[in-house]
Amino acid sequence: MTSESVCIESSDVTISVDESASRTWRRPFLKWAGGKYSMLPDLYQIIPAGMRLIEPFVGGGSVFLNSDKHACFLLADVNTDLINLYQMLAVVPDTVIRHARVMFDRLNDAESYMALREEFNAQVMDGPERAAAFLFLNRHCFNGLIRYNRNNQFNVGWGKYSSPYFPEEEIRAFTRMAHNCVFMAAGFRRTLALAECCVTAHQRGARVVIGNSTAPRVIDLYSQHGFEIRYISARRSISSKVSTRETAKDLVAIL
């Protein structure tokens, strides 16, 4: 089970439905299971303005990339390759883009993909090159699935795409926001330890927003701890066939 939460250090504001419905949403440059892009019009209504947005499960970054309500961001994820990519784009974006462009132009076949994956898993690349390789793997692997084996090796196969899109425009949009971000690699145990901090932050006026599945046990847990429960439609994108990708309801718990 996965969840995504944000904490906003602010007082509440009211956002009109028309404002959310009419705006254009920035797409993340990564494919990401559980991404919140399809939920943004609804989430925009829930997340208030404030000084800082905190995301302990940032993933593909759809929420923070579309936040024009916050001055700075604290963004964490357990995936160290993801955080390395974000950090490298924050400090040496042109170097990462240059490495990635070469990979996109030259390596879109099964043999080249597997060779790069093997090199990636050998942990021999420096920060910018590894960041570019992670981007390449994400855009060329099957359905953009990010998965590691017990030895912490990336093990998703080639996606067989004829001409994968190189998201330079989306990357540049990310880098324009990155100077206002702090990126942290943090596992779930460290994140769970912050639960008490969420309560403390709420007591001083922050709003806590958590996204999760609609499993009955999950609903009961959040309800018992005083969260307001709402439901938002979310598109599923992992199925191997586009025709079988369905829209499902996700839970949004608000404190």
Automatic annotation (TrEMBL):
The lineage of its organism: Bacteria, Pseudomonadati, Pseudomonadota, Gammaproteobacteria, Enterobacterales. The keyword Transferase applies. Its EC number is 2.1.1.72. GO terms for biological process: DNA restriction-modification system; methylation; mismatch repair. It catalyses: a 2'-deoxyadenosine in DNA + S-adenosyl-L-methionine = an N(6)-methyl-2'-deoxyadenosine in DNA + S-adenosyl-L-homocysteine + H(+). It comes from the Bacteria. The keyword Glycoprotein does not apply. SUPFAM superfamilies: S-adenosyl-L-methionine-dependent methyltransferases. This is site-specific DNA-methyltransferase (adenine-specific). PANTHER family: DNA ADENINE METHYLASE. It holds the Pfam family MethyltransfD12. GO terms for molecular function: S-adenosyl-L-methionine binding; sequence-specific DNA binding; site-specific DNA-methyltransferase (adenine-specific) activity. Belongs to the N(4)/N(6)-methyltransferase family. Keywords: Methyltransferase, S-adenosyl-L-methionine, Transferase. It is an enzyme of class 2 (transferase).
